[in-house]
Write a structure and sequence with these properties.
Keywords: DNA-binding. It holds the Pfam family Rrf2. The protein is mainly alpha-helical and about 150 residues long. The chain has a single domain (about 5-145), classed as Winged helix-like DNA-binding domain superfamily/Winged helix DNA-binding domain (Arc Repressor Mutant, subunit A). It is built from seven helices and two strands, in the order αααββαααα. It has a two-stranded antiparallel ribbon with strand order 1-2.
């Protein structure tokens, strides 16, 4: 699985909003500066997140963006899906829509299992979890697995 720059920036922007004090709107410039995200790129991402129902925008001097619902109810998967679409695809196709024959037949259940595991992790972690530094124990255990941080 590849996490695009767009998805990474979207999650980081959402985390800035999750960490905002008293649900105060944050300006695009402040989010971009805090997370070192190109301002113009972030504007497009925030618009996608607004259309996807994850953030609300407010115009005016005290305007900016804030989460549309509590950070506890927004998963990392929600953010990625809004800006990038399905979590797992093969050549742009969702695994259930694929068909393999011959010795490649076993690939389909492999891709389905991969999708299941990706969903389990990304849907099981909320913005609040990450913003607070309190990842679910299952995720922390996977990150602590010997060799997890090593690229083969």
């Amino acid at each position: 699985m590849r996490i695009s720059a767009r998805a990474d920036y979207a999650v980081r922007a959402a985390l800035e909003l999750a960490a905002a004090k008293e649900d105060a709107p944050l300006k695009t410039e402040a989010i971009a500066e805090a997370q070192e995200i190109p301002h113009k790129f972030l504007e497009g991402i925030l618009n996608d997140m607004r259309r996807g129902g994850l953030v609300l925008s407010q115009r005016g001097g005290n305007g900016g963006y804030r989460l549309a619902r509590p950070a506890e109810s927004i998963s990392i998967a929600d953010v990625i899906r809004v800006v990038d679409g399905p979590l797992v695809s093969v050549r742009g196709v969702r695994p259930p829509d694929l068909l393999y024959t011959g010795p490649a037949q076993s690939l389909l259940p492999l891709w389905i299992a991969l999708r299941c595991n990706v969903r389990e992790i990304l849907e099981g972690v909320s913005l609040a979890d990450v913003a607070s530094g309190a990842l679910p124990s299952e995720v922390s255990a996977l990150a602590d697995t010997p060799g997890a941080w090593i690229n083969p």
